[in-house]
Amino acid sequence: MQTLTAGQQAPDFTLPDQHNQAVSLSGLLKDSRVLVYFYPKAMTPGCTVQACSLRDSQAQFAEYGVKIVGISTDTQARLAKFAERDQLNFTLLGDEDHQVAEQFGVWGSKKFMGKTYDGLHRLSFLVNQDGSIAHVFDKFKTKDHHQVVLDYLQHH
């Protein structure tokens, strides 16, 4: 797993959102920076805590000129259910074949309860308007992810 690092160019991508509309990174970057956050599975406890914290902090992210985009390997139907159930106020994208996850270097070997399998790693990338990666967030707990990113934005 070769995870992208700060200074590298983020790969442009187009994926379906929770409304089955095609969304591209280049389109999102036209008027703001983007926090691209990868999470393993919609509607699971940790991913729900993370998403709801981002939802509740969205106004603060907007003050820093940052849009939030969550990416998982879930289907569009599951993303729609997640967004509706938790009243999420940002875009969720489905990367069912994990091609975008692989380009960002967040798809790889994981361990859970003694089993090893391939899956999506929980990492976030702050992408500048020129498409370069400003920062990679890889050390956080689901409940404080939003605060780790906001603290970074406050000082950069």
Report on this model:
The protein has 156 residues and is α/β, with parallel strands linked by helices. The protein has one domain: Glutaredoxin (3-Layer(aba) Sandwich), CATH 3.40.30.10. It has six helices and nine strands, in the order E-E-H-E-H-H-E-H-E-H-E-E-E-E-H. Strand 4, helix 4 and strand 5 form a beta-alpha-beta unit. The radius of gyration is 14 Å and the shape is globular. The model has no long low-confidence stretch (mean pLDDT 96).
Key attributes of the depicted protein:
31% helix; alpha/beta; 6 helices; 156 residues; Glutaredoxin; 5-stranded mixed β-sheet
CATH architectural type:
3-Layer(aba) Sandwich
Q: Mind describing the biggest β-sheet?
A: 5 strands, mixed
Instruction: Determine Rg (CA atoms, Å).
Output: 14 Å
Distance between the termini: 28 Å
CATH superfamily: Glutaredoxin
Number of strands: 9
Order of helices and strands: EEHEHHEHEHEEEEH
Average pLDDT metric: 96
Helical content stands at 25-40%
Number of helices: 6
Summarize the structure.
The chain has 156 residues and is α/β, with parallel strands linked by helices. The protein has helices at 25-28, 45-56, 58-63, 76-85, 99-104, 145-155; strands spanning 14-16, 22-24, 33-38, 66-72, 91-94, 107-112, 115-120, 124-127, 133-137.
Topology (elements, then pairings):
Blueprint: E1 14-16, E2 22-24, H1 25-28, E3 33-38, H2 45-56, H3 58-63, E4 66-72, H4 76-85, E5 91-94, H5 99-104, E6 107-112, E7 115-120, E8 124-127, E9 133-137, H6 145-155
